[in-house]
Amino acid sequence: MENEKIELLKTYLSLYINPMTVLQSQKAGDSPYVILDVRNAPAPVKKVQIKGAQALAAKDLADHLGELDKSKTYVVYDWNSGTILGQQALLILLQAGFKAFELAGALEGWQGMNLPVENV
Amino acid sequence: MENEKIELLKTYLSLYINPMTVLQSQKAGDSPYVILDVRNAPAPVKKVQIKGAQALAAKDLADHLGELDKSKTYVVYDWNSGTILGQQALLILLQAGFKAFELAGALEGWQGMNLPVENV
Amino acid sequence: MENEKIELLKTYLSLYINPMTVLQSQKAGDSPYVILDVRNAPAPVKKVQIKGAQALAAKDLADHLGELDKSKTYVVYDWNSGTILGQQALLILLQAGFKAFELAGALEGWQGMNLPVENV
């Protein structure tokens, strides 16, 4: 059972990337990360997004894979960690052969650490 | 590793059902879904529940399986996605051969989307 | 698929321990549990911690394993269930052969149930 627990944790953690990893890479320049806001909501409901994110709603993702770049690493985020939209988007990206992670803590965690956002 | 990540996401996501799926099915009539409120709390603490939910506390679930209907699909929910009560209840139901999901986002997510609740 | 769902839930749930299990064991005396606060934050940011917890930041954990006691069972917690720091710490402890769990609901859940905390 201990091995199963360790394997589950390893695989689960490999799905996620920490906000500071993304932010520090962006500050250093030439970052491989593209942040995708996959919330299924119009801009007036979203109000803000992570600074520099691209909006691509999870419900539209499968139809727009051709516009993505396989040399990049996609970091998807949703409202908070209680939703499954980010994981659904991540599954679509991984199944299509993209390098991708879900942002640990989602938008709520990013804002909780006072990291940069912008109006949408 | 990519295959393990994809398999984990697929299996994990198969445990959950989105609030809108349940709600739209109920509005269309003849819904297979029965929503179970599995919070281990008395009514004055719970105050409200999802509209039309049946209260069956996770701690009592194993003793009341005989009252459930195998032709239905049970949707369990707890306070929020940070607790494990919903997953414990889901495991009991799946092991007993019931069709069941955990409600993505739990009660907190349901209320965050202003979906219908009722006093208890 | 049902078997995979059940196995995932079993393994996932085996990573967690409920707050009341820890608290009741501590009240009964001679508890095997040692609560580790693994938040990577200085005391002024943390402000409070779970009563009786030991502070050992996740970022420092790998370098301090020699100070831990294999006869104990470690219960790690982070700010809330939306972060992955607790799971990262849990993985380090399990891989090093310690008995360990993550606290279900994290600090946020503990405080939400009005369980005892102390200033740091």
TrEMBL record, chains A, B, C:
Q: Which Pfam families match?
A: Rhodanese
Instruction: Output the PROSITE patterns linked to this UniProt entry.
Output: RHODANESE_3
Q: Which interval of the chain is the signal sequence?
A: none
Q: Where is the Rhodanese domain?
A: 29-119
Kindly provide the name given to this protein in its UniProt entry: Rhodanese domain-containing protein
